[in-house]
UniProtKB/TrEMBL annotation:
Residues 29-286 form the Periplasmic binding protein domain. GO terms for molecular function: carbohydrate binding. InterPro entries: Peripla_BP_I, SBP_2_dom. It comes from Pseudoxanthobacter soli DSM 19599. Gene3D superfamilies: 3.40.50.2300. The keyword Signal applies. It comes from the Bacteria. GO terms for cellular component: cell envelope. It is found in: Cell envelope. Keywords: Signal. This is Ribose transport system substrate-binding protein. Belongs to the bacterial solute-binding protein 2 family. Residues 1-23 form the signal peptide.
Length: 316
């Protein structure tokens, strides 16, 4: 599916030049995403708006509408408003949370709308026609395997979770699977909402509670920033590694610079929303039918390959 995906994306790129020739009837594509409440979602908003601008310019008979929501309940309301005000031919949605958005998205689906789900999956995957995401299990597993190797298979870990979503569950599943069979012990694991300030406070609690911590996995780079600040302020020297995930440019720069505490990273590009919108439009205009699952790789980023993932001018 992944190879077909990039073929479809390339084909749609060519369509941007001759969009009017492909579109017959006015079709509405709603893009529902979380508001820019941290760095990664800021990148999502940036790329979603860029996709809408490009496609609306190329296809006068395609109307891509982007709606951001600051909470799960606000996103539910946004879906209701979008559905009530017009017929939706397609919905591209990055759910704020999995559980709260599953039933509302099903209602949109039942009205005959093509559903593309991005990143945070729904609790019922049968609702989606297309799913685009990074490999969250690999994000967790590859990070865990690095720690097993570098810590000699033993040590104390603390873990920070994001918010209750399918992708958070998958990252934790991959991480726990990666340390299986070793003597690495998870002392504590709590939610910090993919938020730097919440992660700072939680890490302070961990530092006060546990006198010996060998490594921290923050699950996400925004949380990692809070973790690193808490460690810095504590003056603790027992923590050998503090790792995140998602490919934030500030963290990639640490890897490039050979930072001892954060020497590796895993990618999870917010630009996946743009890929999802492009593929959805390609499907609607009949140029490149797209159904199924598209998973983006999550290889370990090291000092040797970090430059390939470093984009200093990007919003994330």
């Amino acid at each position: 599916m992944q190879k077909k995906t990039w073929i479809a994306a390339a084909a749609l790129g060519a369509m941007l030049v001759t969009g009017q020739a492909w579109a017959a009837d006015k079709k509405v594509v709603a893009v529902s995403i979380p508001a820019a409440d941290h760095g990664w979602t800021a990148g999502v908003v940036y790329h979603a708006q860029a996709a809408a601008k490009e496609l609306n310019a190329a296809f006068p008979d395609i109307d891509v509408v982007v709606k951001t929501s600051p909470s799960a309940s606000a996103q539910v309301s946004a879906l209701e408003d979008l559905s009530a005000s017009r017929k939706l031919d397609a919905l591209v949605i990055l759910p704020y949370t999995s559980e709260e958005l599953t039933a509302p998205v099903k209602a949109v689906k039942d009205a005959g709308t093509f559903i593309t789900v991005v990143d945070r999956g729904l609790n019922d995957p049968s609702i989606q026609d297309l799913y685009v995401a990074g490999d969250n299990i690999a994000v967790g597993r590859n990070t865990a395997k690095f720690l097993v190797e570098k810590l000699g298979g033993k040590g104390n870990l603390v873990v920070l979770r994001g918010i209750p979503t399918v992708i958070d569950d998958e990252r934790i599943e991959g991480f726990q699977d990666g340390i299986k069979g070793s003597d690495l012990k998870i002392l504590d694991i709590q939610y910090a909402n993919w938020n730097s300030d919440d992660a700072f406070k939680l890490m302070q609690d961990y530092l006060a509670k546990y006198p010996q911590i060998d490594a921290v996995w923050a699950n996400d780079d925004d949380m990692l920033l809070g973790v690193l600040e808490a460690i810095k302020q504590s003056g603790r020297t027992d923590i050998k590694f503090a790792l995140g995930g998602n490919g934030m440019k500030e963290i990639i720069k640490k890897v490039i610079d050979g930072d001892a505490m954060t020497p590796v990273e895993t990618p999870y590009p917010p630009s996946m929303i743009k890929t999802a919108v492009y593929l959805t439009v390609a499907h609607l205009v009949g140029h490149a039918p797209a159904r199924g699952t598209v998973k983006l790789d999550a290889p370990l980023i090291t000092k040797e390959n970090a430059q390939e993932y470093y984009f200093p001018d990007s919003p994330f």
